[in-house]
Amino acid sequence: RLAADCKNIVSIKEAGGSVDRVNQLFQAVPADFSILSGDDPLTLPFMSCGAVGLVSVAANIVPGVLVKLVQTCLDGDYPAALAQQKEFYPLFRGLMSLDVNPVPIKTAAALQGHCTEEFRLPLAPMTDSAKTQLAALLREFSLLS
Questions:
Q1: 36 and 65 in contact (C-beta within 8 Å)?
Q2: 17-58 pLDDT, tens digit each
Q3: Residue 40 half-sphere exposure, CB side, CA atoms within 13 Å?
Q4: Rounded to two decimals, what is the model's pTM?
Q5: How far, in Å, CA of 104 to CA of 119, rounded?
Q6: Angle between helix 128-140 and 103-111 (nearest 10)
């Protein structure tokens, strides 16, 4: 209803983790209304179902990777996008599963020296165990020395 009734609303970020939801939205929204993936690990499947872009978490530390993935999907080269997805999925998934968003990405940025590791309540720092896992993941992708 908002897509049809409010001309200043032109897009929706879908981050519910459901490809089916993207399909439902694609069926229901006007042709000039866009759907954006809000879930890095699901960018490829969301875009294959009609999403036209991404509101990303991982782009805070690997912007070029996400730009390339989205552009490859927009170009319709899904075999190449699948190869990119396969390569970076462990990073995307780890950033979304080691703790509640945005704690892992902010911790990753802090580990890289881009910011301080501070969180507003009710968020709290990662446990030492999760932080160790995050650091190992970042090293695996050459994002931490």
A1: no
A2: 899 999 999 888 888 889 999 999 999 999 999 999 999 999
A3: 27
A4: 0.89
A5: 11
A6: 60
